[in-house]
Design goal:
- The chain has helices spanning about 50-55, 65-80, 125-130, 175-185, 195-200, 235-250, 255-260, 270-280, 285-295, 300-310, 325-335, 345-385, 390-400, 410-425, 430-440, 445-450, 460-475, 475-490, 495-505, 520-530, 540-555; strands spanning about 20-30, 55-60, 85-90, 95, 100-105, 120, 135-145, 150, 155-160, 170-175, 205-210.
- It is of the alpha/beta class.
- α13 runs antiparallel to α14 (about 410-425).
């Protein structure tokens, strides 16, 4: 008889002697790893028991992968040699190039014309086998009509193509559920008119050998002789569990497939199918597992986030947790550096990211130093034209332009001495009015003083305080927001002292290194932020902390 040539990748196994007169092959695939689901495609497998009762040697396989399907087909070929009746039922997904049609197994990838040999069965080859039983051979194909709209490149589309049916072979096509209904309701019932059953369902079609009245099985077979057979041993649950434990330990698609090859209906078959589906649904799983194997600590993850932030990739926080913001930042960095955008890091990428951040920190610090020197030059030049003259207007003009300048403390001290001298020289009434205004320290109080003593000894001081208080009120909301942002950082005393020590190393005079942020610390922070082009608030935020720590790393190398 004809031999079945499915593909060059699937070889025939050695024939097995079977004494049945009829042969059947039933393959139903509902769960595909990559091609989606085919609703009710496995309904056809429930016909196997009825066919066995009729004397058929039945090969049945639900959701079979390529190797299991090839084995089932080869056993069917062996059984079909000399069989009186042959039945092949294929329900699931098909592809065609127009002249040839293939049935896809459960592990089939998205098909193209040149990858079908490993995971698809040739419908034409199966029809050749059926041609050896003319008038007693039926091929049933259950395919969703919607799949015929799918295309796979210029050469393939979904569904069943035009079939060149051998003489004497009956081919029935329809939706999976309709094929299952006629299989269970007519084909497996002796003396049932198969042609009439197909004609009664407009969703089914019949081709090839299709007489007006056709009974696939004319009469019921004689009752089989009852033989006493030994009880089928219980399945080896220990071996099943052991293989499953090994599959879970490896946690790979191939390990789960190995389990299903050995135990297609095993205790953990559903879990294995779910695991395979999860692996397929996560295209970057390998990259995730590789990152997880590094077991990065919380501090190491924070360092990654600082490096990304320093390179202008927004991680939406530096907390040591790689959430959506950090993953998006990693993907953007990977894209800019020619890596696959997996959002997961490798050791090589972490090292490169650290090197880039260190270089960027050095560049930024060099720029900041140049800016600081230029600011210091301008500061000194302005001081020489104002405060260096040694008079009150000069000091006030300097402090108005450079409230955190390098001569700010000196100007403030000199003004304090001038005020003290004014107190001593002022008349008692003028001095008392001024002391009252100073105690209230409000714009209204100073205006009251100026109205009462427009030429008073403290009029310049009053005007300066009005300007300062007005500016302070305008900045109140901004300062509150900056203070809240600093509070969210939740710095511990050690971190606060580290910030002060770093500011002290830079010569910014933050006051005592005690973990308490006083006016001197705020002034030092404002100077640091000004020189580096950061928002000048005098409060810590993530960009300022990132730069401070980065500067520290650069200087420490």
């Amino acid at each position: 008889m004809r031999r079945l040539f499915l593909t060059t990748a699937i070889a025939l196994i050695a024939p097995v002697t079977v004494w049945a007169d009829d042969a059947a092959l039933i393959l139903g695939t509902e769960r595909y790893e990559q091609l989606g689901r085919t609703i009710r495609a496995t309904d056809v497998v429930s016909a196997s028991g009825a066919l066995e009762d009729l004397g058929f040697a039945v090969q049945v396989l639900p959701n079979g992968r390529a190797d299991a399907a090839a084995a089932a087909v080869n056993r069917f070929v062996s059984n079909a040699d000399g069989a009186d009746h042959m039945l092949v039922v294929l329900s699931g997904r098909f592809v065609t190039d127009g002249r040839r049609t293939w049935y896809m197994t459960a592990d089939a990838p998205v098909p193209d014309l040149f990858n079908l040999s490993a995971t698809a069965l040739s419908v034409e080859s199966l029809m050749q086998v059926l041609g050896d039983a003319p008038g007693h051979a039926v091929l049933m194909l259950g395919a969703e009509a919607a799949t015929s709209q799918q295309t796979f490149g210029p050469w393939l589309r979904g569904g069943v193509g035009e079939l060149d049916i051998p003489q004497g072979v009956t081919v029935i096509q329809g939706e999976p559920r309709d094929v299952a209904d006629v299989l269970l309701g007519s084909v497996v019932l002796p003396a049932t008119d198969l042609a009439a059953a197909v004609a009664n369902n407009r969703r089914l079609s019949i081709g090839g050998f299709a007489p007006r009245s056709y009974m696939f099985i004319a009469d019921a077979p004689p009752a089989p002789q009852v033989l006493v057979t030994p009880q089928t041993p219980a399945p080896d649950t220990i071996a099943d569990a052991a293989l499953w434990d090994g599959a879970r330990a490896l946690d790979t698609m191939e390990s789960y497939r190995d389990y299903l090859r050995r135990y297609p209906a095993g205790l953990h078959a559903a879990e294995a199918e779910a695991a395979i589906a999860a692996i397929i649904a996560e295209p970057d799983r390998g990259a995730r597992l590789a990152e997880e194997s590094m077991t990065l600590s919380r501090d190491q993850r924070r360092q990654v986030q600082r490096n990304l932030t320093l390179l202008s990739y927004d991680t939406r926080g530096i907390d040591g947790i790689f959430g959506p913001g950090t993953r998006r930042a990693i993907a953007n960095w990977q894209q800019q550096n020619g890596f696959s955008q997996t959002t997961y890091l490798t050791t090589e990428q972490i090292n490169r990211l650290d090197a880039q951040a260190s270089r960027r920190a050095a560049e930024l610090e060099s720029q900041a130093e140049a800016k600081r020197l230029e600011e210091a030059r301008l500061d000194r030049a302005y001081w020489e034209e104002t405060g260096a003259k040694g008079d009150e207007p000069g000091y006030r003009a300097y402090l108005s332009r450079y409230p955190d300048g390098q001569f700010a403390e000196l100007a403030a001290d000199r003004l304090a001495l001038i005020e003290q001298d004014k107190r001593q020289a002022a008349q008692a009434v003028d001095k008392a009015a001024w002391d009252s205004a100073r105690q209230a320290d409000t714009v209204a109080a100073y205006n009251t003083y100026l109205r009462a003593y427009p030429q008073g000894a403290f009029r310049a001081d009053a005007q300066a305080r009005i300007t300062a208080l007005t500016q302070s009120s305008a900045d109140a909301n901004a300062n509150a927001a900056a203070a809240a942002a600093e509070a969210q950082l939740a710095l511990n005393p050690i971190a606060a002292r580290l910030v002060e020590a770093r500011l002290q190393q830079l010569g910014l005079n933050p006051g005592p290194v005690d973990g308490v942020f006083d006016d001197a610390t705020r002034r030092a922070l404002r100077r640091y932020q000004r020189d580096r082009g950061l928002d000048v608030t005098g409060y810590l935020n993530e960009p300022t902390v990132v730069r401070l720590l980065a500067d520290s790393v650069v200087r420490g190398r």
